[in-house]
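**Protein fold record**
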Amino acid sequence: GGYGGGGGKGAAPSLRVVGKVTAWNSTSPNGEGGTLHAEESSFSMVKLEVDRSALVPTIKPFSREVDENEMRREMEAQRKLDKADADELRQLLEDVRAAKRE
């Protein structure tokens, strides 16, 4: 029999992977960084004829304790960056609206 998905009698073992993906354009004229090409979307893949006895788990536990205070500092810094980005976008939109009104 099969191992999960597809499972009729005599079905080949298969592996299905699902997740989220974003597409990036990694080529730019000046050779620096990349640009977001497509927003996050869902994807799924099916690999047929998988030898499940050879699969290696890739999720590993944390190798060290996480310092709560450091995590709070990082989250606060990220919040400040996010707020600055949002404020910048709001200002940009207001500038565009003002230019349209003129």
